[in-house]
Specification:
Blueprint: E1 18-22, E2 26-32, E3 38-44, H1 49-57, E4 69-71, E5 77-79, E6 84-88, H2 91-99, E7 107-109, H3 130-143, E8 147-152, E9 155-161, E10 167-174, H4 176-182, H5 184-189, H6 207-234, E11 239-243, E12 258-260, H7 264-277
Parallel strand pairs: 1-6, 6-7, 8-11, 11-12
Antiparallel strand pairs: 1-2, 2-3, 4-5, 8-9, 9-10
Helix pairs in contact: 3-7
Length: about 280
């Protein structure tokens, strides 16, 4: 779909769109609340079409806009007023989501061609994941440049924008869940609690304690190495913005100024939406 350029958001485009992040293990839905916070709903993958329809119809926007939804004879969800911003790294699930929506729905899928507040000078920007693009936009809106964005999700990604707002590159490594799955047999027998309140022994006396210590310290070591090598390559004092499900346990390895923001991706999509509507 071609974005409707030169169309004020009060003429068919609501000021509060629904932001959707489609990953490899889940779909996350975000919308801004009237108090400035965020509504969010997460759906684990895989998900059936019927379940997806039910989730979409239950989504809030400006507290509750369920009256904006209706279903036609084909069971496609018709969105009467609000637009959708989709950030996707999973083409199959993206196609599934769009198949349960009315084809007349106002949808914009994030692309490297969008009006970002940062620039690309080297490499092929089409090879950068949409999630990383949006995370950089949100981080720049939050703390400015230069910035190092760490996403501790299914994968651990590091993305860097320099002081002159040029994308400098990044790193991608396994996520915390991958480390847990690597020990799949014992993990089925023991509960691996990695919440920040759990301060495990460095040397576990049982299999459960050893798993907890090894996975936690191994992941912290991985992230610490990614950040320190990035800072060395950047050779500048950059703020660090961390997000993702494993973000809360990373505090011990961050040695520079940092912000933990679980909604930086939604904030990046909101910033992009504003830029698109001003074209």
């Amino acid at each position: 779909m071609t974005w409707k350029q030169n169309r004020p958001i009060n003429q068919g485009w609501m000021k509060m769109p629904q932001h959707i992040d489609i990953g490899n293990s889940k779909i996350a839905f975000f919308s801004r609340r009237s108090d400035g916070g965020w509504n969010q709903k997460r759906v684990q993958l895989p998900v059936s079409d019927e379940s997806l329809r039910t989730v979409i119809q239950s989504l809030p926007n400006e507290e509750n806009f369920s009256n904006y939804f209706s279903s036609d004879a084909t069971n496609a969800v018709s969105i009467k007023k609000h637009p959708w911003m989709i950030c996707s790294v999973n083409p199959n699930v993206e196609a599934q989501l769009k198949s349960v929506m009315d084809p007349l729905s106002k949808i914009h899928t994030v692309s490297w061609k969008d009006p970002w507040s940062f620039r690309f000078e080297k490499g092929d920007p089409s090879q950068i994941g949409a999630d990383r693009l949006v995370l950089m936009e949100g981080a720049l809106e939050r703390v400015g440049a230069p910035v190092i964005v760490v996403s501790a999700g299914t994968a651990t990604t590091v993305s860097v924008v320099g002081r002159d707002r040029v994308f400098l590159g990044g790193m991608i490594a396994p996520g915390l869940e991958a480390l847990i799955q690597a020990a799949s047999f014992p993990a089925q027998l023991f509960r691996v609690d990695l919440t920040p309140k759990v301060q495990e022994k460095a040397l576990g006396l049982s299999t459960e304690e050893a798993l907890q210590s090894g996975i936690r310290n191994g992941y912290l070591g991985l992230v610490h190495r990614l950040i320190t090598q990035t800072q060395r390559a950047l050779n500048d004092q950059a703020s660090v913005v961390i997000t993702g499900g494993a973000a809360p346990i990373l505090e011990p390895v961050i040695e520079s100024e940092w912000v933990c923001d679980p909604f930086v991706l939604a904030e990046g999509m909101e910033k992009l939406y504003g830029s698109l509507c001003s074209l």
